[in-house]
Amino acid sequence: MKATLTITDLENNIRWQQSALEPGEVDHVHQVSVYPFMKRQTIQGFGGAFTEAAAWCCGQLSVEKRQQVLRAYFGDEGLRYTMGRVHMNSCDFSLGNYACVEDPEDEKLESFTAERDEKYMIPMILEAQDIAGRPIDLMLSPWSPPAFMKTNGEMNHGGSLKPEYRGRWAACMAKYASYYRDRGCSVRLMSVQNEPAAVQTWDSCIYTAEQEGEFARDELFPALQAAGCGDIRILAWDHNKEVLPYRAEETMAVPGAEEAVGGFAVHWYTGDHFDALRLVREKWSGKELWFTEGCVEYSRFDGMSHVKKAEMYAHDMMGNLNGGVSGCLDWNLVLDASGGPNHVGNFCEAPVMLNEAGDDYRIMEEYYYIGHFSRFIRPGAVCLGSSSYSAEVEVLAFENTDGERGVVLLNRTKETVPVSVTQDAERAYCVELPAHSIATVCW
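The structure assignment produced for this chain is given below.
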């Protein structure tokens, strides 16, 4: 068995720690079992969001420090991210509202512009790809169509897409995908709408579940095919987990949606609801599930300890992956010291934060917890069946394409917990988990 990498809050400077593992007894009181013959979904990757805010923050740093940040995320010495999320048109973590088309008379989209993308997100993505030495697979998500296409006449505060603009908006979305591909970016996924049931003070747009299915079937799927991007997988919902079974049922009930909608995306803002993922995975086994957004919001979690924030990430990633998701995408890659910029003051934390002066950065504790997944679970890995003796130790088991197996172990209690990890009935390996710690064990 190989080394374990453990992170604990007992140190001032958290690092990946290496320690040797020795064989132990199978009947160790705190047993974690791995069932390698129970192979589940393929895990396709991990990543974060290339928002305008994140790209703007990276632009404040020197070339040397910016590359340090990108290596910390996409380099082999860092989180080894292979994926990213990009907003089409503006989102709350933009410097302000903007749209790719502003002219209501432009039916042919001749005025389409990706000027803001060229200034901020695309250079960051291309630099990340250079550092990674491989394409970064992207998911594109809209927060709002242009204001003139909406019933409320603005990009913020909800509203919905006017029926007469459905075809033009789908063409805009396809044009975004084609544009990014032409610039050397790998677009693999696209959601119909970010948080389609939320009326926000920032960029937002409402779709019913039926409308998502109809839009995907009648407009977006044909538009992507016409643009030569028919291989992009369309995801519905892109919102909180507890409503997913209802939304999936209603969207898939739309005749023809089965072909157009390739899966569903979820966020974490209303709690665990891991069973909701499992239920949808069981009923629509041919559809992918993706976790596409989560963050520590200052409006809800101000004052929470750093280790508790990090444990939120690990707990949710474990539950999501055990529930059947194909990959996990964090929210902003980088933010400033206030948790922005955000054009409506909706501030939050990111795994990398700038200092007050904006000329240096700090790596937050959740970064290291994320690494216990993204560094060791490689694209193409499968999630394995596993069980734990109690909720004191949470477990995720996986097998990489080269046959390497591993478990991520999380101890959120105040006590040290000795654990034996076994994948058969003859031998186990002992791991001691300090209070509030996480470990990855590979063999």
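Interim note for the steering committee: Residues 146 and 283 are 36 Å apart (CA to CA). DSSP finds twelve helices and 23 strands in the chain.
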